[in-house]
Queue: 3 jobs
Job 1
Amino acid sequence: MAGNQKAKAKMEQAKGKTKATVGRAVGNEQMAAEGQMEKSKGDARQAKEKTKDVFKH
């Protein structure tokens, strides 16, 4: 399960980064903000999984 969550975090980070970049490129601030929010969500999920790994070992 942890591997699945890590993959989901990476996917959210990549999707968010892409969306933010495209939003900035086309001048759509709302899309850029949504992309940054998705990336941050992925960052938070990844941090949570890393914390879980620390306590497992």
Note: The mean pLDDT is 93.
Job 2
Amino acid sequence: MRPTHAKDHPATAPPQPGAAAPVASCAHGTVADDGEGHRVAEGVPVPAGSAEVRRIDADVPGAVGRLLGQVLAERLRRARLTDPLFAEELAERVAGFTLQGGKRTRARLVWWASRACAGRDRAAAAAALRIGGALELLQTCALVHDDVMDRAVLRRGRPTLHTDLTDRYADRVGPGRAGRFGQSAAVLAGDLALAWADDLMAETPLAPGTGEVVRRLWSDMRTEMVAGQYLDVQGQITAAPSLPRVLRAACLKSALYSVERPLALGAAVAGADEVTLRRLGAAGRCVGMAFQLRDDLDDVFGDPRETGKACGGDIREGKPTYLVAVARARAEAAGDGVAPAVLDRWLGDPALTERGLDEVREVLVATGARATVEAEVDRLAAQGLRHFDRAVLDAEGGGPLRDLLLATAGARPGAAAAAGPRPARGPARARGGAEDER
């Protein structure tokens, strides 16, 4: 996963770099059973009823942030008991990074998928909120590790975690040793975020029969995320991969992790039937692929004020993106030897200049790769919405979920029209009585 593959834009009025955002105190929770013999911790406030579920609708990111604030306050309390230095320099940075947040798209997908399948069910809403928080912690792990692998210096418009820690010690031990320390510490910070994410998932009370499904989805998603990331970094040191191979990596590292699995987790906690899960899964796969392809475009052609990072990171790292793969394929088909030479010259060059990036941009436009990928984003977005519109969902949750999917896809204005008009929504039918696919 690259720095932007989460569309991780700066949060509003973020805390200063390296400083943990303030968190509220949280009392120890009680312990309960999730119906399948698993002991789970309770104590984080949950929606008191359908009216409160609706209030959360108005600000899902804020609700997830408040939950994380309470969860992380307890984690920091335990970290300080373990070791004050560890808590101050590492645990507080992990908490601060998570609380600063981005758009919290994955958490919103979980919430609205649950709402679309279960209406205002209190238990499903409570589980969806906690799973959304766990996904935010998992995203912290992914982004911190990404920044180390990509040698990125900015994240959300501020110094990356490993850069911040490097700067903290550079005057004491010199830039070389401080740099190695910063990278090592960031790996540990990502590991800590992953541990906290798993803790939050394990402590989420789930209805009998639901826990096994949710835990399997969570396990599969973590493995898929690592597999996609491995294919991504492996592709940087090998010959230019084929288009199918590039798409496979994009599917694993982004389409599944960023969209399809969050939708599935939200639907699963709501007890959705197999038909609904299948249709939402197909929608999520298409939208997730569009999401990744838009990210590829934004890395080269985007506005740094919106992406929160400098352009050209994928080019500097030699990322095997679909955008570059299309340019190569089109150049080879046209017998164009100049375009591949330009790509070979600049791809993987950490000293990529603005002039070099402009040359790459010219190739991507001249070969038609940019236009091709733009059209593919629109096509995938429209296809995803067609899958989505076949699912029978609760009207109150289905509409916002559809809008969120369209925004996540990053399609151009008017792309939704290709999917046809939005169908009228009926009451939720996701808890059983699966209809046959037609």
Note: The longest helix spans residues 122-149.
Job 3
Amino acid sequence: MLSNHSKPAARKGVTAFLIISFAGTWLWLLCARAVLGLSSTNLLLQLPAFCMPGIAAVVVRRWITKEGFADAGLKLRLKAAWRYYAIALLGPPFIAALTLAFAAVVGLWDPDLSGPGGIPGTKDLVSVLGLMAVALILTPLYAGEEFGWTSYLRPRIFGGRTVPSLVATGLIWAVWHFPLAFIGYIEFPNVAVGLVVWTLFFQLQEIMLMWLYQRSGSVWVASVAHSGNNMVCFLILGEMLNDTEGLGALAPILLSLVPMAAICLWIVGSRRLTHERPLPDPMLARHGGGTD
């Protein structure tokens, strides 16, 4: 998975990151459920688990490879990257709208057109804006995953080459989530099918998150989008589509793959993913400083 030219320190860092991320998350989920009896919807169960990749990246950067945080994308870059913050904020409700439109076209959702002129009313708009505000507030929580997967791991596997590193990161990210399908966090009618669809969903999401991260130069842009995906897009879709006959919790994920795939094809087809400069040798970077 690592490039043949990777230094031993880089290999050591990636290995340590994966061990901490997976062991820390999975052991905590086991302890929280089996020992503490916490519900899968309890924030005390979710927060330590979802923050673990970020914790792992900090531990590796600070104490294992000692490479520091110069390439971590920690600056907000509000002025330079405002367009991408806007995309990250507006993208999740846009994907939700496209998904609902697709579901209506294929007959899997019957929209309520009782609003003025057959469009959603003020109450619906206020609800969406409220979810977007909540997503912004919760962005630091989702930054843990982005700081781990998109900022730390992806550039360090397969020499950072775009296609293999994206596919590998999406697959690793998906597998890291798999235990959630067995503790009630998400319930698929058919677990095997659900995990396959979920994996494809993570692959597509990673393409969009990587594009936002590369274009903005800030992990916070990707974190805004990640928070919006969870707190806006899939809360809306879960509310609207979870009653889809025979699909249950799989419906929002499965139907959203269509607009997400179209967006990813646009990103990849128009070559909007960039080739990144090689990462510094951790043995040399440990003497540097700063946060970008």
Note: Residues 287-292 have pLDDT under 50 and may be disordered.
